[in-house]
Amino acid sequence: MKTSPGDLTQFTIPSNSCRLRVGVDRLDNAGTPEKPPEIEPNVSSPLADDIPVAQRESNDSAPKPRTNVALLVGSLAALGLVALAAGSFVALRLQNAPDTLATENPAQASPTDSPIASPTVSPTADTLLNHFAYTEAPQAELAPIVPDGSLKMRKAAAKAFRDMTAAAQREGVNLVPISGFRSLADQKYLYFDVKADRNQDATERAKVSAPPGYSEHHTGYAVDIGDGNTPALNLSPDFDKTSAYRWLKANANRYSFELSFPKGNRQGVSYEPWHWRYAGDIQSLKTFYKARGQK
């Protein structure tokens, strides 16, 4: 009997074979049976050589992607180690950078290279009502600046002042010393007694006269100067209209004298065009310019 592929008439399905019936049902549902029914021995199964070459090669080369994945993971791990090493090197360089800069530029850290600044009231300074504290000059360090010896200054300052007044006299300018060194007792009278006579409060009086212990006159380097030709303007802000003041502005630095309280001074002391101080040796510079409150 001639049969065609897919013809099932040659097989007999036992009526009590539930298993085979289920298999037929699966064939109807899926289109391809999970396991073909038992067939006659004369129906041969496909040989291994009948499997397409492409399918055999793909099966044989299946392990290769695993090798590529392992290689990729290894490469990424190596790159990670290189990046970690580079990051550690950069961090170490940044940590040492400040020390290197300090070594290459030592001048930036040296406070002695800064220009000397004029005295300024600071929170750490020993000040009272905007005046700095000063030590009273020893009597042995004083020398007269007038013939009768009633007014004195420290020896170096006294000599410079005498030289300055002589030079001004040669030009027709009469520089008259009004006050030089003042003791603590002298300053006590000028501050407290005059304050009481003028009915001034402490702050108001401090604008024109320092409390005892806080006056530049204690140092022996300060002097009040008047104009012998126009005495009416002495100890007045209008002293800056005199020939004596104009000469001082033009020449006082030649003799190491400077104006202590110019207009708008940072100490907040009233403008005193008559009050000058000597800053011509190391001791006077330390007295007026060395930072207060620092050891």
Written description of the protein model:
This protein is of the alpha+beta class. Among the domains are: 9-40, no CATH class; 132-289, Muramoyl-pentapeptide Carboxypeptidase, domain 2, CATH 3.30.1380.10. It has 8 helices and 8 strands; from the N terminus they run H-H-H-E-E-E-E-H-E-H-H-E-H-E-E-H. It has helices spanning 18-30, 53-60, 64-104, 155-170, 184-197, 202-206, 243-251, 282-289, and strands spanning 127-128, 131-132, 142-144, 152-154, 175-179, 222-227, 257-261, 272-278. The protein has a 4-stranded antiparallel beta sheet. A hairpin with a 7-residue loop joins strand 3 (142-144) and strand 4. The protein starts with 17 loop residues before the first helix and ends in a 6-residue tail after the last helix. Mean pLDDT is 75; it is low at 1-65 and 97-118.
List keywords for this structure.
4-stranded antiparallel β-sheet; disordered N terminus; Muramoyl-pentapeptide Carboxypeptidase, domain 2; two-stranded antiparallel ribbon; alpha+beta
Percent helix, as a range, is 25-40%
CATH class term of the domain at 132-289: Alpha Beta
Task: Round the mean pLDDT to the nearest integer and report it.
Answer: 75
What is the β-strand count?
8
- Low-confidence regions: 1-65, 97-118
**Known CATH architecture of the domain at 132-289:** 2-Layer Sandwich
- Strand portion: 5-15%
Listing every helix as H and every strand as E from the N terminus to the C terminus, the arrangement reads HHHEEEEHEHHEHEEH
- CATH fold label of the domain at 132-289: Muramoyl-pentapeptide Carboxypeptidase, domain 2
Rg (C-alpha, Å): 54 Å
